[in-house]
Amino acid sequence: MNATRKPIATGSDWNFNVLERFDAELARLADIYRLDTYPNQIEVITTEQMMDAYASVGMPVGYHHWSFGKQFLAVEQAYKRGQMGLAYELVINSDPCIAYLMEENTLMMQVLVMAHACYGHNSFFKGNYLFRTWTDASSIVDYLVFARQYIAKCEERHGVQAVEQLLDACHALQNYGVDRYKRPSPISAEEEAKRQDERETYLQAQVNTLWRTIPEAPTGEPPLPGSLHSGGDDDPLGLHSGGRYPPEPQENLLYFIEKNAPLLAPWQREIVRIVRKLAQYFYPQRQTQVMNEGWACFWHYTLMNRLYDDGNVDEGLMLEFLQSHAAVINQPPFDSPHYSGINPYALGFAIFMDIKRICEAPTDEDRQWFPDMAGSPWRDTLEFAMRNFKDESFIQQFLSPKVMRDHKLFLVVDDDQAENLEVAAIHNEQGYRRVREALATQYALSVREPNIQVVEAAIRGDRSLTLHHVQDSRRPLGRSVYPVIRHLQQLWGFPVHLVSMEEGHVTRRFHWPIEDENTTA
Amino acid sequence: MTYFIDRRPNAKHKSAVNRQRFLERYRKHIKRSVEEAVNRRSITDMERGEKVSIPVKDISEPVFQHGPGGARDIVAPGNKEFIAGDKIRRPSGQGGGDGAGEGGASNQGEGVDEFAFTLSREEFLEFVFEGLELPHLQRKSLKSLEEIKMVRAGLAREGVPSRISITRSMREAYARRIAMRAPIKRALKEAVEALEVEEHKDPVLRNPKRISELKAEIERLEKRIAGVPFIDTYDLRYHQLSPQPQPSNQAVMFCVMDVSGSMTQNHKDIAKRFFLLLYMFLEKHYEKVELVFVRHHTAAREVGEEEFFYSRETGGTIVSSALNLVNKIIEKRYPVGQWNLYVAQASDGDNWDDDSNICRDLLVKELMPQLQYYAYVEITPHDHQSLWHEYESVVKQFPERFAMQQIVEAGDIYPVFRELFKRRLNQS
Question: Of A99, A118, A206, B369, which has the fewest beta carbons less than 10 angstroms from its beta carbon?
Fold first, then answer.
C-alpha cells in the first residue's frame, strides 16, 4: 500500500539489534496509542528454560515443592510428544515487567510476543483495578526471593518432609486465601523480612490470647474485625459465654488458619502466610483471563497492523503473523473434537474489537444497547473498560449482540433432575440478555469455586472447626472434599466439620477425622 | 524503557530440585515401573530413560471443587440448529466438565487417568541400583590388557622405499640445493662482473689473459652449478614407525549361570542385576563390550540373553562344563591378545561332588592366566558347599583378579564391586 516500504528486517532470523529496533518502534506506537506500561525487561531464554518457567507457574523465583516438579514433568512430556507447543510467551506482573522470548521463535514471533506481552499484558497489569488493588508489581520479585529463602531455611531447620506436608495442606486451600471484599495490604518483601521476628512473636501472642482458658478481651489489635468476647462479663468464669467465634463467617480460610490455628508453630504460620500472599498475587489473574488475553490480543493485532502500514515489516512477516493470530483466536464450536470450552483469547479479542467498532461505526442496535459508548472516542472507552472491570462484570457490560451472533453463543441448562438438557436461550433478540448474564456468571469466581466459609471455631469446646458450604442450585462438592478437609484438619490440629447448606437446609455433612472412628487420637 | 537480557547462558536445570522432590515422593510407584522395565529390557539396553506412569488420582493436588450433579448453566459457542426450548439428550458418559467447573485441578490433559513422564537415564539407573546402595558410579582406572600397535614416530634417514616421505625428502633436497649452489653462484657473479669490467676497458688496456682466465672460471663454475644433484640419497626421509603398547579397547564378558532346578526366578533376577552392574562398569571403560551367555546344568550351552534369564531347566549341576565351554569360546573367538576377558558367574553353590576340584584346576591352570577378572556370586542363604571352598583356594592364588561373594538379597551385590573398584584404584 505504500511505496516506501522499508522493513526493519526480513526473513525469520533475528538478532538483538533487530529486536531492539522493533522494540523502539513498538514503544513509539504504544506512545501514540497512549499505552501506559511498566518498563520492560525482555529475557531471551531456551526451550528448557521456558519449561522451567512454565513449571513454576510463571514465578521467576519459586520455592521448592514437588508439585512444581510434577508440573515440569507434565510440560516436558507433552512437549516431547509434540502434543503441545510451548506457549511462545510468558509474562510476569512485575515492575519492570519481565517477558520471556524463546530463542527458537522466528522473527515474527518475537515481534508478536513483544507486542502482545510487553505492551499488551504489561499495560493491563499496570492499568486494571484488580491488579492495582491486589498486587504490588514493584515488590513481587523481592517477595518471591524472600519466600524462597524463608522456606529453604525452614527446610533446613525442620526438615524437608515437615515443610512439604505443610505446603501440601496450604496449596489445597490456596484458592481460599483471599479476602474478596477487603482491600489487602500490598505485598512488600522488605517489610516482611524486617518485621519477620517481630511478627512471629506477635502472632503467637495473639493466638495465645485467643486460646486462654479464661477468655478476656484481647489486648492490642483485635485479631479480626468486630472481635468477640463482648458478652464475657455475664459469666464470671467466662467459660461458655462470649458468643460464637468468629462472629462473622470468614471466607479467607488461610488467613483464619494463620491467625487462629491453635497449635501451629510461628514458622508454620509464616509459611501459611507466604502461600496466602502468593495466592493473593495470582488472584487478579484468575479473574481477568478473558480481559487480559483479549486486551493483549487486541494490541498485538493493532500494533502489528500499524507496523505493516508504516512499512516496517514486509508481506511475508505479515502473512506469518496473520496465520499465527488466527490460530490464537480460533474458537472451535461446541461439537468440534477440538472444543475445550470457550477460548478466552477469542472471546476477549472479539469484545475489545467490537467495542472499537461500536465507538467508530455504531449501528442502530449498538445505539440502543450501548447508548453511552456509541460514537465515543474508542481509545478512551477501551481504556475505561480495561481499567475498571473483571471478566464477570466486563462480559456483563460489554458483550454485544453482534459478538454473541458471531460466536453463535447459546445457553444450555443442565439439571440432573430433568431427563434432558434444555436449550434455554440462543443468540436472538429474546436470548441476548439471558446468554450474556449466564456467560458472565460462568466467569464469576464465586460460581466457579464452591463457596466455603469458616463459621465457628469451638474455642471453649472441643476446639473443632466448623465450615459451611453454601450450596447453590444443588451442586454438590466434588470427591476431593475429603482430602482437602484432611489437610485443613492437619493445619487446624482438631476435628473439622464441613456442612453443605442450601437455602437453610443441611444437605450433607463431612467430617475429618471420619466420625465413626475414634476422634480423640 | 526496555532492557534486553540474554538468559540463555544461565543454568537451565532450575526445576531439578522440584523434579527430584517429585521422584522422591512417588518413589514406590516409580520403583515398580523401573523394576518391570529392568525385567523386560536387555542388559545392554539399560542406558536410557524410561517412561513411567502413575495413576492421576494418586498424585492429584486436591482443592474444593464442584462435583457432578445439581443444575448448572452452560454457555457454549457454535450453535447451528438449536432454538430456545429445544431438548437435548444428555450425552452418555459425561464428565460433567464445562470448563468452568474444573477449577484449578490437575490439567495434565485429555482425560487420561495416568500421569506419564519420562525418567532420564541417570534417574533410571539410580532407581535400578537403589536397592544396591550403590554410590555414584565412577570411572576408575582398571588395569587393561596391552596390545602392541605400531604408531608413526616422526622421520628417519633410513627406511624402506615404500615409507619415503616425498614432501619431506623434496624439502630437504631443495634446502641442500640452495645451500650447495650459493657459494658457487656468488663466485660466478663475481667472475661475471670482473669479466664485464675487463671487457669494458679501453682496448689498449685490456688484458686478454685475464679475460680468458675469467671465461674459463665462469665455465667451470657453471658446470659446478649444473653438477649439483637435484636429489641425493642424503635428502631422503622415511616415515618412522615405532611399537607402542596400547590398551585394548574391547572386552568380552562371559555371564555364566547355573540354571538347574534349584535356581528360582528370584535368584535369576538377582543374578541379572549383578551381571548388569558388571556390564555397565565395563561399558564405561571399554569402547566395545561383547556379551556371551553361558548357562549350564549338567551340560553347558551358549544361549541368547532371553533364554539365559527366562527359561527354566531342571537337573543336576556340573559347573566345570560351563568353564570348559568358556575356555573353548575364548580360544576360538576371543584371542587373549586382543580382548579383555571378564567372567561373571552366578550360582546357588550346588555342584556335583567331584566336579568342584576340577573347576578349581580349570580355573587355576587354564582360565585365570587369560582373564582380567573373575567374579563369582553365590546366591544362597545356606551354608557353602564344596564349590565355594575350592574357589577359596583360587582366591589365594589370584587375590588380585578373583573375587567371590555370597549374596542373600539384592543389597549384597554391591560389595563385590566395591572390592573390584577399591583394589584397582590402589594399584593405579
Answer: B369
Please indicate, yes or no, if residue B42 is contained in any of the structural domains. yes
Question: What is d(CA A61, CA A278) in angstroms, rounded to the nearest whole number?
Answer: 12
- What whole-number distance in Å separates Cα of residue B84 and Cα of residue B137? 70
- Which chain B residue has its CA at the smallest distance from A61's CA? B14
pLDDT exceeds 60 at position B351: yes
Mutate to test the interface with A, among B7, B18, B86, B124 (most CBs of A within 10 A): B18
Within-domain flag for B190 = yes
> How big is the CA angle at A72 (ends A66 and A73), to the nearest 5 degrees?
95
**Are B286 and B367 part of one and the same domain?**
yes
| Range(s) of the domain holding residue B176 | 161-240
* A45-66 pLDDT per residue, tens: 888 888 888 877 767 788 999 9
What are the chain B neighbours of A175 within 8 Å (beta carbons)? Answer: 63-64, 103-104
Same domain? For B199 and B309 the reply is: no
B19 and B50: one domain?
Answer: yes
User: In this complex, is the C-beta atom of A77 within 8 Å of any C-beta atom belonging to chain B?
Assistant: yes
pTM of the model: 0.71
Which tens digit of pLDDT belongs to each residue from A418-443?
888 999 999 999 999 999 999 999 99
Same domain, B201 and B288: no
The reply to whether B265 and B229 lie within a common domain is no
> Do B318 and B217 fall within a single domain?
no
Residue of A nearest to B102 (CA): A448
- Is residue B232 located within the same domain as residue B270? no
Q: Do B323 and B263 belong to one domain?
A: yes
Number of domains in chain B: 3
Tell me if B44 is assigned to some domain.
yes
**Three-state secondary-structure class, residue B407:** strand
In this complex, the residue of B67, B84, B103 whose CB is nearest that of residue A425 is B84
Interface of A with B in 9-68 (CB under 8 A): 16, 19-20, 23, 27, 39-46, 48-49, 51-53, 55-56, 62, 64-68
Q: For residue A211, give the nearest of A201, A223, A200 by alpha carbon.
A: A223
CA–CA min distance A120, chain B (Å) = 14
Report whether B147 contacts B247 (CB < 8 A).
yes
Question: Of B128, B151, B169, which residue is a domain's last?
Answer: B128
